[in-house]
Amino acid sequence: MSTDITWLIGGPQGSGVETGANIFSRVCAEMGYQVFGKREFYSNIKGEHSYFAVRVADKKIHSNLNDVTVMVSFDAETIFRHYNEVMSGGAMIYDSDLENTTTDDVPTLNQIFKSRLHKELEAKNKPFTISGVLETAKENGVNLYPVSFRDILSKLADETGNPKLKALIRMFNVIGVSLSLGLLKMPPDSLFKSIENIFSKKPKIAEINKQAANHSYNFATAKFNDFNYSLPGTKKEPHTLLVQGHLGAAIGKMVCGCRFQSYYPITPASDECVFLEQHQILEIDGDRPGSTAIIQTEDEISAIGMMIGSALTGTRSATCTSGPGFSLMAEAIGWAGINEVPIVITLYQRSGPSTGLPTRHGQDDLLFAINSSHGEFPKIVYASGDIEESFYDTCNCFNYSDVFQVPVIHMMDKFLSSSVVTCKRFDPSKVTIDRGKLLEKIDDNDYKRFAFTDDGISPRSKLGLENGVFWNTGDERDEYGHISEDPIERIQMMDKRMSRLELIAKKIPKEEQVVSFGVHDFTIISWGSTKGPIIDALEMLKKENIDIGFVQFKLLHPFPTDYAESLLKDAKTIIDIESNHTAQLSQIFKQNLSRDVDYFILKYTGRGMTSTEIYDSLKKIIENKASKREILKHGA
Amino acid sequence: MALKLSDYKTDVHNDWCPGCGDFGIVNAIQMALAEMNIPRDKAAIFSGIGCSGKTSHFINVYGIHTLHGRVLTFAQGAKIANPDMTIVAAGGDGDGLGIGAGHFVAAGRRDVNMTYIIFDNGVYGLTKGQASPTLKLGEQTKSLASPNTNYDVNPIGLAVASGFTFVARGYSYDIKHLKDLIKAAIQHKGLAFLDVLQPCPTYNDINTRDWYAGVDMVEEAQKRHSRIYKLEDIGFEPTVHFNEESELNEKLSQALIKSLEWGNKIPIGIFYKNELISRYGERLTDTIPNFLENPPAKQRISSNGKPITNVSKLLDSFEV
């Protein structure tokens, strides 16, 4: 029988939920399983509810499912919020000391959630307490595994003769993970290894945690032996990485030679910069060590200004940001556009408008990215669908910006960046570096930065190059870069710049523009991180002998109209799937292909899509039971 | 081969108003570059928006005419990436102290080794004379419908408070003095700020060339004398000589006190100078030891179109 389980851990922010999930994910990955973990958290430092849902399977997976197989919680809120997600036959490991906790005892339960929960419980005639919720779960067929977490600490304190351990509730996370491993009959050795790994800089803490882990693990294997699911291990795929989403772009930037990144702190983009800064010294084959200058600026306006200044020196330069910061960058994107400066902006989208849902997912910024900055100028908007792709795409984005001398906006999002997944090791040998018409030497002394050429792209000098002096201006310019308001020169310059859109659509290889996963009567169009849940949903349908096509758009501007048209000519019903309200891809699709989208599957709760909910909606569409707009809601 | 002053001039038509103070600043920059014999391809003028923004087009070195208020951001990025460049940023008082004030303060904290010149005339000239951040409260220049309702910002005081390590003021009609200040600013190891009083003959009818020259004070005194005087002439000692709190406090506070002088006596010259503070680029060597020898612009990133950055060990650490 194949393995495919989902494990969920929840608790207050700052209580080690993420550490717990990292240990569990690493253990599973080391046992050969494929892992897809989704992290959800509030815009808060301590106390609000956060959780991590880790799907573990012995086949390739790209998303989460709705159903939870094992839930482990050490606080009441997790139980109140997630009890309904645990499937029949699944398990809940919980702190038995919490049984009498009422919904009113949990200050972080918001009123509107409480009234929904109260209605559910009322309908089942249950009290508004953890016991009430647990009874409901039990009636749903869930196996309950009560454990007094404090008892475990006491016993551990006695066992080790260390009374201090009694109060160490910081270890609830490790206890929860270890109980889970015991329940799932997983071998404990990689658990200890993982703990050593995570606390490698604090050997004393590692030791205490290992004791707690050992004790809890033994407790679970002794007591929990009636559970039907287990994770005995499977054959490991060689060269598998366990990585968080932002690493694809970060390591891509190192490999492709980005040596300057300026940024202003913002969720969820800063993780990438922090990682780059932690690894800023670079090993260079056959040369002295290199480095990436990571500059934290006073705001996003400065971040993009500095990045452009750096790009003018011939340095591959980037910034990364999220919606609010990107809004601030808009003016300077136009400056880079008119001055034909190659820059890359990695845009980690979250839910807007304004501050919106600052720590939640969204794909709200596609049209804004395409139309960012006033006036008309060429730019590239490019979207990655998953972590592995984002590594290679990042390298390609730098090539595009150098070759076409345009700003490139690389669309990422929160779902992608905060997921923790197993994927194939990135292969730098597949990367090429193409700097386009960047000059290393200029002989004549009449250099014109904006010289008219056959392909509309001028040879590019850089600051500090002999005979390479040039001028830039945000004004319209002549070939040297000096201000010009001449009407005919204006036409020439506009035409020169704008001709690049056609060139981009022609020159970027088709397989880098759009990826077809097959086209059938029903075919999905989508972009970005919805790719994973779509692929998994299609796999589920395939098992029922239902074939649905999927065309993933990566190049979103300029829009690959002709190629998309040829790909989709046999599709009878087009279904657009996006994490936003207005189905932004469908708008540019319709504008360019003069073709309507038949159905929309949209989600704007701020939570990523699961394959289960896409599957459900697709089924409804095929059975002609769907509404034109299917709105997804899953996820706490 | 030594370069001549004319080598630093472009043939771009200069469309500033006749008599504009900006001419003096451009001339002084060109003279400073020529006297220092800085190769044309090793110098860059970054400019903001407004009349002063055109400065970069008149000087025959790299010229980067940026966005309103953002000139310091572009300039710092370039200097950090390529420390070999001599970089002079230039912009108006509205550009640097209004829309760009946040960057002004942040630049002071960073202390990147370059020069920033503010063309200080109290008005937004190119948009027809609105009040700028350095116009005094209650003053009404000729195109204002009513007297200025905002207090003025003190550029010298703000620079000192923000951490600029060279703070000076020049006068655009004293070109020789201004040229020497620009040279000193470029030679300074750190971020140099130069506030240049620059009469706008078209829109500022209060702080005119005659006003600076003290023409209106003739009746008060027997002899006409300029409002402007030089700090060096009164023996003002702006330099921080040793790294002690008392020395630092003394030099900072005397600069602040001097910055408040206005009206009948207006000081120009160097207010504050401190080379004992590490520059931004040097601070980066704490984490990147070879940063100054191998800055971003000089790094090799590929060989025959293939990457040469080796991330094997990093990838190993994520392999399960």
Structure keywords:
heterodimer, A: 636 residues, alpha/beta, Pyruvate-ferredoxin Oxidoreductase, domain 3, Rossmann fold, 4 domains, eight-stranded mixed sheet, 38% helix, B: 320 residues, two-stranded antiparallel sheet, 17% strand, globular
CATH homologous superfamily heading of the largest domain in chain A = Pyruvate-ferredoxin oxidoreductase, PFOR, domain III
Going across the biggest sheet of chain A, name each strand in turn: 6-5-4-1-3-2-16-7
Tell me the span between the first and last alpha carbons of chain B: 61 Å
Kindly state the percentage of residues in helix of chain B: 25-40%
Number of strands of chain B: 13
In the CATH hierarchy, the third-tier topology of chain B is known as Rossmann fold
Using only C-alpha atoms, the radius of gyration of chain A works out to: 27 Å
Q: Count structural domains of chain A.
A: 4
Instruction: Give the CATH level 1 class of the largest domain in chain A.
Output: Alpha Beta
Helix/strand-derived category of chain B reads: alpha/beta
Shape of chain A: globular
Largest interface: A-B, 84 and 65 residues
Helix content percent band of chain A: 25-40%
Characterize the quaternary organization of these chains.
heterodimer
Which series of helices and strands of chain B comes N to C? HEHEHEHHEEEHEHEHEHEHEEEH
Folded structure, characterized:
The complex is a heterodimer of chains A (636) and B (320). Chain A is of the alpha/beta class. Chain A has 4 domains: 4-223, Pyruvate-ferredoxin Oxidoreductase, domain 3 (3-Layer(aba) Sandwich); 243-430, Thiamin diphosphate (ThDP)-binding fold, Pyr/PP domains (Rossmann fold, 3-Layer(aba) Sandwich); 437-508, no CATH class; 511-631, Rossmann fold (3-Layer(aba) Sandwich), CATH 3.40.50.920. Helices cover 38% and strands 20% of the residues of chain A. Chain A has 21 helices and 24 strands. Chain A has an 8-stranded mixed beta sheet, with helices on both faces. Chain A has a 7-stranded mixed beta sheet with strand order 11-8-12-13-15-14-21, with helices on both faces. Chain A has a 6-stranded mixed beta sheet with strand order 18-20-19-22-23-24, with helices on both faces. In chain A, helix 20 links the parallel strand 22 (573-578) and strand 23. The longest helix of chain A has 21 residues, at 203-223. The two termini of chain A are 30 Å apart. The model of chain A has no long low-confidence stretch (mean pLDDT 97). By secondary structure, chain B is of the alpha/beta class. Chain B has a single domain, classed as Rossmann fold (3-Layer(aba) Sandwich), CATH 3.40.50. Chain B contains 11 helices and 13 strands. In chain B, the strands form 3 sheets. An 8-stranded mixed beta sheet of chain B has the order 2-1-3-4-8-7-10-9, with helices on both faces. Chain B has a two-stranded antiparallel sheet with strand order 5-6. In chain B, helix 1 (22-36) crosses helix 7 (175-187), helix 4 crosses helix 5 (101-110) and helix 5 (101-110) crosses helix 6 (155-162). The radius of gyration of chain B is 21 Å and the shape is globular. Chains A and B meet through helix 1, strand 7, helix 9, strand 8 and strand 9 of A and strand 2, helix 3, helix 5, strand 11 and strand 12 of B.
